[in-house]
Amino acid sequence: MKIAFILETALFGLAAASCPFGHGNHKYQKPRPEDSRSPCPGLNVLANHGWLPRSGKNIDLATVRSAVAGAYNYAPTTFDEAFQMALDVNVSTSGNSSTFHLADLRKHNAAEFDGSLSRNDAYFGDNLHFSPAVWGTVAERLNLYDAGDCNRDTYVTVEMAARARAARVQDAMRANPNFTNSKLAMEGSPGTTSLYLTTLWDYEADGAPKAWVRAFFEDERIPYIEGYQRPKTPRNFTDIGNMNARVLAVDAKA
């Protein structure tokens, strides 16, 4: 089963590198060298599909609202506070105080923090780009490359995601002598797990399909070809908060 998943990933990577695909005006395209991308897979996904500017530059609030509603069916104002927080810590290099480039979000302990699920810590020199080594440890703990024999084995559960996140933070704390236990990190780390779960959640199965999680993190694309459909019911910050409570409940039992 694991070999089949790896082969599937390799074949998809070859196809994705050669041609765009997707839905209408929002086809998936890998970023060009001059495009700006962030440490946040969810924002990169939006840019790779053209919901945000494909350049990843000069992102304003109206564009974020339209993107999260159009791609993920979040209420448009769900991330207004997060957007304003990024501006308040002066990450922007766009020359416009009301916009930022995606790469601006790499500013350490401002918008980005140690213990990312898919990026290395700033201490090691690159907190911006996807790290196969870091993500590999998380993917292994999520058992992403083995769907098992039962339908339930094809989903990431809250418990799996929470434990994988906590283990990743512990790995980072051991490896990074400058690991920062900031308020941003301690609240943001479980929050980012709650966010990706809410975004990819199958409420009937009470889990996030493993294939969707892989596409989201490894290819930074919306998993349309794996069966993702935009939810019919809008979600908002309350839904993310409810998921966060479930993640924290698992942490409390550890």
UniProtKB/TrEMBL annotation:
Keywords: Heme, Iron, Metal-binding, Oxidoreductase, Peroxidase, Signal. InterPro entries: Chloroperoxidase, Chloroperoxidase-like_sf. Residues 1-17 form the signal peptide. Residues 24-242 form the Heme haloperoxidase family profile domain. Gene3D superfamilies: Chloroperoxidase-like. This is Heme haloperoxidase family profile domain-containing protein. One of its GO terms (molecular function) is metal ion binding. It comes from Aspergillus versicolor CBS 583.65. Its cofactor is heme b. Belongs to the chloroperoxidase family.
